[in-house]
Amino acid sequence: MAMHFGLIPPLVGFKQWKCIGKLEKFKQRYLNYEIATGISEKEDATRVATLLTVIGNEALDVYDTFVWATVGDDKKIAKVLEKFDDHCESRKNVTYERYIFFTRAQETSETIDQYVTTLKKLSDTCEFGTLTDTLIKDRIVLGVKNQKIRERLLGQPDLTLDKALDLVRAAERVQLSATRRSYFEETLFVGAVTSEVKNDEWYVATKIEKQNTKLKVDTGSQTQVLLRLRAAQELGLIKIVGNTGVDSTTKKPPAHLKEEVFKKHQKIFTGLGRLEREYHIEVDPTMTPVIIILL
Predict the structure, then answer these.
(1) Contact 85, 14 (CB under 8 A)
(2) Origin, by domain of life (predicted)?
(3) What is the pLDDT of residues 198-209, one digit of tens each?
(4) pTM above 0.90, yes or no
(5) Beta carbons of 33 and 5 less than 8 angstroms apart
């Protein structure tokens, strides 16, 4: 039974100077398309014709400018794809490719494995050579979205790409586990709802124009009011239940004792009294000053 496949999307933006990444992705899709449709088993002329049919107008215009060293190369699929590679390679801007790489940060919903895959693809056009893994590792340290993970990576003196990936993966697993646990704790919790009312307010009932009215007693102060002794006595809060008298006899000191004290401590009674050094009063800075109203 024959199988029918739709055409793959054309190669867009091929005339732009940054086309090498677009070409690589298109070639991957096209070669799979050839296998799926059986075109890969056909002769080269058919394969080239199919390629030029699906590649789009922009790439077709570029194909028309190619100069072929040998007659018939324009009908060979390998030679045609090689020409397209050379065209994009000549228009590659390494500075721009590296700019894209070094400014690529991990996105909010992106895992570390997704992030490193993107960095590896971007590095293909940066010509890093043997420094590729080292620079990918450095970009992970700079671009990872979690600040605590970044601090931990910076604290590793012998950090490698594999070690960095292991540390970030472990942190992601812990974070995911904590998020799930918090979710179930919040959504599956069953408990009782109680209401406790404390009323420290003072109300009195009175009549206004023959109507019973409940009034709130308010001192107008934002602080605790302290009653003076007289007010407390008048309100009956303090009562004097009796007096207790104690008789005592104090022996009067001899007259000469006064002269002895003056003579012995003469410095104390000379000039104005003062302390030897300045006294500093410590005040608790956390305390809020209040006004106490005395009634």
Answers:
(1) no
(2) Eukaryota
(3) 656 667 677 777
(4) no
(5) yes
